[in-house]
Specification:
67 residues, alpha+beta, two-stranded antiparallel sheet
């Protein structure tokens, strides 16, 4: 990890970090019995939380992925 004189990540490090984040979001995890992309799981979890907060669901079960 490289930082500039102000303590911020340099361009190369920021690009590398962004690449790794997007790569992880495109990675697959098992969710609801199927392999799905992590970014899809995050969207579905947001929808599930909203349903729970509205009172449409009695229980919210969070997703816990592997790293």
């Amino acid at each position: 990890i490289q930082v500039d004189e102000e303590g911020r990540l340099d361009d190369k490090t920021r690009k590398n970090l962004a690449y790794k984040i997007f790569d992880r979001l495109d990675g697959e995890e098992r969710y609801d019995g199927m392999k799905q992309k992590l970014k899809t799981i995050m969207i579905r979890q947001a929808q599930t939380i909203a349903s729970y907060v509205r009172g449409d669901r009695p229980v919210y079960k969070p997703f816990v992925g592997g790293w």
